[in-house]
Structures are given as structure tokens and as C-alpha cells.
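stuck on this:

***
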Amino acid sequence: MKIGILTSGGDCPGLNAVIRGAVLKGVRVHDAEFVGIRNGWRGLVEGEYVKLDRHSVRGLSRQGGTILGSSRTNPFEGEHGGPENIQKHLDEQGIDAVIAIGGEGTLTAARRLTDAGLHIIGVPKTIDNDLAATDYSFGFDTAVEIATEAIDRLRTTADSHGRCMVVEVMGRHVGWIALHSGMAGGAHAILIPEQPESIEQICEWVESVRDRGRAPVIVVSEGFLLSGMEEAHSHKGLDAFNRPRLGGISELIAPEIEARTGIESRATVLGHTQRGGAPSAYDRVLATRFGMAAIDAIYAKEWGSMVALNGTDLEIVSIEEATGGLKTVPRERYEEAAVLFG
């Protein structure tokens, strides 16, 4: 069997470990042949391929990013897009099945292509950890570690100058990165998309911290909404799936805090630093297991399915189930953290 592998959407630590796990198991157990599809769905639409073998994946588990490249191309758009054209490309290359590694947008496209008859298995990739069908996705643990280190570093300069630091992390619809890194970094408030808060409440927390002689540190998800906001802050246009490119909410909050409290405040947007660098040990192991499980799903012909983590066990679920709803932060988890605010 000849298997294609692609990585689509935003990059994240652990993608290369998935590729390595899939290729090594496929070659050793099934004597499969592999081809890498360059630059996500764009490579599948335009026919950009590279050979993958044991030599080309050697040592990949510790390497960040993706050796195959990525893009946010919508495979249904353009003159070469659509399931018929894509299947033609696959037939020309003799590719029997595709492993699509990506997040919500990638998996939704994979489900639509599978519904049209293509043989695709999904592997969940999202640092936001927002897919309901899997307990964890690789990249999340690394993103939390990076954000936590940044909070630790910013705290020292905040203490030195008596400033309030507002640290913005990723999280379009869910606040898992903010929740975990904020708790780990000892933040004095954590602001997440699931729980709007007023600027008055935020300033109350900030003043409480100042009154104790401390320098306030606030962690905020990029998708957080202040009370009264109807949609998340965005000034960067739309992505390929017509979703707003978020970022900059911290730069709205910090000046408001300073104006209302008199505390000098600074915003730091961590942005793509959370996606970069080598994956954590946890993400390397999880990503490798996902890659190996994807091979099992292919040989079981579980088309339209996705590998997922349930506790410590791997299972196969439908992509429709995986993309049917977001895994949001439960209110009780937020209230658990809120005890530590102020």
C-alpha cells in the first residue's frame, strides 16, 4: 500500500513525530510505501510530493515544525480543487490512502473529502486542545510550557518596575492554554473566551494585587471577550477558511488597566512563539503514538475516522464526532482557578 501524509493548518511541535511514527510502523509492520504531500492541502491540489522512507524520518521526533511544510489552503477552492481533481492526483501517484494531520479546519475538510469517497484518516493537531473527541492533542503541552516560561520571565521585570503585565496566549474559542499556563505561572487573573469579564472586575483584581505589594500578572486568551463585546478582537483580516485572524486583545486591556488604576501596564503577545521550537517529551510520545495508530486505522479501512486519546489509551473515532463541537473549559474548572485570582 502507498500512503500519503500531509500536515495542514498552523504548525505546531510534534508534527514531525507523527510523520516518523507512521512511517516507521508502516514500513516495519506492513512494508508500506510512503509519500509526503508538500504544504498541506495545497500540495494535494497541485500535486507536490516528496518521498518518505526510514532514512528521511530519522531523528524527527525531537524536531519542531514540519518537514513537509504547511498551509491554510482550502482544498475545495481553486480550479484544481475539489474531490474529483484530488482523487485524480492520488490515482496518478498510486496513493491508496492519506493521513491528514491538522486541526478543526483540516479535519472538517478531510471529512468532506471522505464523504466524497476519498480514503483519509485524520490525526488531531491543535495547540488549543479544543477538539472534543480527544482528551489531549499534541502541541498543547509544549505551548503551555512555552507560555509558562514567558510568564515566569515577565514576572521578574514586572516585580522590578512595579508594573502590571498582560500576557496574551493563543486560544481562539477555548482557554485551555491560558488556564494551564496561568495556573502554572501563578497569574493573578486568567481571562478566557468561555468566561467574559468586565474591565471593572479585572481592575479590581489588579488593585488587590498592588495593595498586597505585588506586581499583577494577567494571562488572557486571544479570543477573550470583555463584557459587552459581541466578537473577539481582530484587526488582521480573514484566513483561508474565512475565520478572523485574532490577536491584540491584551493591547486593549493593558491601557485600560493603566488608565483606571494608575498602575503602569504592559501587554505582551506571545503569538507564534507558542508554536515554535522542539516538542516536549509528552508531545513527542503522544504524537508518535498517534502516527502509529493512524497506520492501524488505514489497514482497518476506517476511512473518515481520527485517532484520539481517551485517558491513556488510543482509540478511533469518527471525524464527524471530533469536529461536531469544541471542548471548552468547564465553568467548574474556571471557578477552581478563580479562587487564586487577585
Notes: Residues 141-275 form a domain with the Rossmann fold fold (CATH 3.40.50.460). The chain has a mean pLDDT of 92. DSSP finds eleven helices and 13 strands in the chain.
